[in-house]
Known about the structure:
Number of strands: 0
Radius of gyration: 21 Å
Largest sheet: none
Helix content: over 70%
Shape: globular
Distance between the termini: 67 Å
Number of helices: 10
Strand content: under 5%
Amino acid sequence: MNHSAAPADRSLRSRQNRYDERRTQLAESALTTLGELGYARTSLRDIAQNSPFSHGVVHYYFKDKTDLILHCVRHYKTRCMTRYDEVVDTATTADELRRGFACKVAETLRDEAPMHRLWYDLRNQSMFDPSLRDDVSAIDRGLRDMIDRVLTRYAELSGTTPRYDPDTAYALLDGMFVAALVAHLAERDRAATGAPASDPPTTVPDRVRDNLFEILPDFLTAR
């Protein structure tokens, strides 16, 4: 019997855990730079220059830019996939869930726009770069399932059923969100330059919240 096997296994797991933790720390540090510059305009050197880590350290933990960016987006989107769980779990009426979901969507658009922009940038790049496709598809499926959980619970509380299959419902809401993201970023850039807003005083996230609250019943079948 090899008595040293168990300690050796624990030591190996500990080293792997430390390695994974450092990769996650680097990903957290890189997200701001990636969200502002995007996939094509960011190099590992750019990320190192805007983080506490040297270029050599970043290169040690990630073989190239794609490896780092995929890890960043997976890390961020894993958090996103549970964003609405509290709304789903705590809502006791259909209107409560409807309002909570709409407010959460507006909140993430307002507070995390650069991260969403990075995600759509990466998803677009996957049409040209086969090395991105498996990870992007897996993230997309997770986001689709997140929306399906919201709509399934909303239907249960409404005493009806979802009108659309999960893929269609996700495509419709995702299209609405990406259009709002483009408008919000344009509004943010105008504000940064001091240019007048196109239609003040209502912000894009506020409009998204109100519009989503209004249209969500259309995602259910008639009673």
